[in-house]
Amino acid sequence: MAENMVLRGKAHVFGDDVNTDYIISGKYKFKTLDMDELARHCMEDLDPDFVNKVRPGDFIVAGGNFGCGSSREQAPLVIKHAGVAAVLARSFARIFFRNAINKGLPVVECDTSGIRDGDELEVDLGEGRVTNLTRGTVLEMVPLPPVMMDILREGGLTAYLRKHGGFRL
Amino acid sequence: MGLTIAEKIFSAHLGREARAGELVVVEVDFMMGQDGTSPLAIRAFEEMGGRRVRDPSRVALVIDHSAPSPLEGVSNLHAMMRRFAAEQGVGLYDVGCGVCHCLLPEQGHVVPGDIVVGADSHTTTYGAINAFSTGVGSTDLAAAMLSGSLWFKVPESIRLELRGTLGPGVYSKDVALYLAGRLTADGATYLAVEYGGEVISSLSVEARFTISNMAVEMGAKAGLMEADDKVMGWLSGRTSRAPRPASPDPDATYRDVLEFDLSDLGPQVAVPHRVDDVRPVEEVEGTPVQEAVIGTCTNGRLEDLEEAARILAGRRVSPEVRLVVAPASRQVLLRAMEKGIIQRLVEAGAALVTPGCGPCVGTHNGVPADGENVVSTANRNFKGRMGNAEAFIYLASPATVAASAVAGKITDPRRML
Ligand code: SF4
Fold first, then answer.
1. Is the same domain home to B186 and B300?
2. Does residue B66's CB lie within 6 angstroms of at least one atom of ligand 1?
3. Domain residues for B159?
4. How distant is the Cα of A127 from the closest Cα of chain B, in angstroms?
5. CA–CA separation, B350 vs B347, rounded Å?
6. CB count, 10 Å around CB of B229?
7. Cα(B293)–Cα(B360) distance, rounded to whole angstroms?
8. How remote is the C-alpha of B215 from its chain's centroid?
9. What are phi and psi of A145, to 5 degrees?
10. How close is the Cα of B220 to the center of ligand 1, in Å?
11. In whole angstroms, what is the distance from residue B228 CA to residue B246 CA?
């Protein structure tokens, strides 16, 4: 993660309140732990074509309360396995937010209202800045709590705990 | 300045004053995973290099979401949970024991003042007995099993004062739905909700669980109530653990204090596909339904079945409707059998399924067909929630669901009291 704090890709724009059932339906997630298999159904109920359109390194961009609903960690995992580099939203549901960081999926809280589908974005996690290359605008992101930044830097909570053996604040 | 319930509980765990906004690491008193989340937690635990669960007596794994298993893939994940539970000596509630959120308090695992994490979003339920309980993901659960503790940001709180007296045919579910409608699906994100006022005091502990259960539908991290005499009475005989009740200080600092007078509140219905799109039942009366569901961690307790049976007694479920009843636990099923409730429900035409999540999350037990309407006592009506994105889910109280099952269309239960 540390060497890859600047991300560049295309925006796939969704609306408010994208819940975890939309990200990955419960009817699939109970069957398997194979995330590549599950990733084929990512966002299926909102946009059946999403998995075909998304390219590795692209971003999901959404409005408020992204990831509301269940605590399923499959949600950030399938997003990651679908090739998405980061999720940008005006706000996140807290369990999703925590899960994403724990799984090493960057989540960026910022004012997403000016981003249009297909815009080319550059996300600089270290600097806390999003540049909309298509529109020439710059957005500030809400900074992560330090413990989350540390977990993200290690690539997720598993690696963090393997390294530190416990939580360090 | 004084402290909120959440701040009191974190302070007690830290042995010093903790204020909203602080990042803290605390001991977790109890932790839980269900069959949709435990397999990933077990995998994360192993990947973290975990050998032994820090304190197996503080862990329970519950097989409730797809139980009994409908598919070989699910069966293998269940087997993985059984194996892990046996190796580690942690508690396992297998097929038929019930829904995690009914079981944990019922079996005495949670007491006032606890900090509890569950790898399931509705872990907020135990806030009704004054526990700071919150949903986490599988990796956080793994971390808690491994280290016995977890990091938190002590949340700010919002206080809801619920005034007045609920009328006949109006239940705690109607209150929970009404509040979700008023506060909206992200109205309490990152916040703890504190519920107080005479509406809460007048409710049974079982009815209160329904309200804390749905705190997460407003985005809340916890849905806390005080441990009054009813809570202490409810706990007695269930647990050997000592409660450490936490009351808010009169001068506690809240993000917001909101008052609602609920005396005129009628039955409420959340309409597809949003939990916060809540209408008075009059506005949706007459909507035809093909499936009705009574159960889930929101409304599958004894009182809920009893309320439904009262309406169904001497009546028949409409031939147009499939009524699925899932008691929330084996204990609920047994008590409901003793009291003749099950007899009445089944005689009226209900289909009884295994104690557990029932059809709530769309894995089995009643997936609706394309274009069908479902009226359910569950807590979520997202598109696709019950396994079919072409179906429409309405959420209501057990009484409203029972009345609607009889009439074949959404019906004000006050017509059948
Ligand atoms: S009953 Fe429904 S909401 Fe409750 S734990 Fe089970 S699946 Fe989740």
1. no
2. no
3. 7-14+22-259
4. 22
5. 7
6. 8
7. 8
8. 9
9. -60, 145
10. 17
11. 10
Residue B414 CA to ligand 1 centre (angstroms): 27
Tell me: do B204 and B310 sit in the same domain: no
pLDDT in tens, A33-64: 899 999 999 999 899 999 999 999 999 999 99
Is B2 within a domain?
no
ipTM summary value: 0.91
Residue that is last in its domain, among B234, B259, B284: B259
Contact A71 B119 (CB under 8 A): yes
**Which of B294, B297, B374, B380 is the best mutation target for the ligand 1 pocket, counting ligand atoms within 8 Å of the beta carbon and taking the most?**
B297
Q: Considering its fold, how many domains does chain B have in total?
A: 2
CA B29-B33-B38 angle, to 5 degrees, is 135
Each residue of B158-217: pLDDT tens digit? 999 999 999 999 999 999 999 999 999 999 999 999 999 999 999 999 999 999 999 999
The residue from B259, B288, B311 where one domain ends is B259
Give the Å distance between the CA of A117 and the centre of ligand 1. Answer: 34
Q: What span, in angstroms and rounded, lies between the C-alpha atoms of B67 and B354?
A: 8
Place of tokens 């309320």: B307
CATH of the domain at B377: 3.30.499.10
